[in-house]
Amino acid sequence: MAMRLNALVWHVRARVEKLGALGVAGVAAAIFALVFQLCAVNAVDADLADLRAQAERLHARNQLEAERPANARAVPGAQLATFYEFFPAVGSLPEWLLKIDAAAARQGVALDLGDYRLVQEKSSRLARYQIMLPIKGSYEQIRGFVAAVLNDVPAAALEDISLKRETIGAINLEARLKLTLYLRPENW
User: Tell me, which fold does domain 88-183 have in CATH?
Assistant: First the structure.
């Protein structure tokens, strides 16, 4: 085994010497380009696919709006109906919770067990999904998490936040967030 390893090392050294400094630089550049392709470009492609899907949904919504008669758009009842159509259906709740979890993972904050409660009042046309989340992380991580949730989940609202630091010099904080997702009931 050791002889094979020595032979392989000798073979690699011979190839490197044959390539020269420019050849080694070329191979290094090719490896860098491959790693860059795999890491950066593929991630951007995934983001681009998400943005294209979002653009298609918005285009379809605009097409529906354009097809409505002009007088239907001006009626306050139709405007109110359009307003309520903005909110996602209750059935899409798992998708929004996954987005919140993904935002936590991107920001590197630790989510502890939270309290979740769906509130549907008969007098309201929207259901509220209330989430109490204890999280741990630095101030920047917590702030980034809140910003990411409010950006990624347009029907979410931050109702309350409390921050606690064990000592003055501590970097990490404990926070309690109260988020509310406003959802359209299925039977609406």
Answer: Alpha-Beta Plaits (3.30.70)
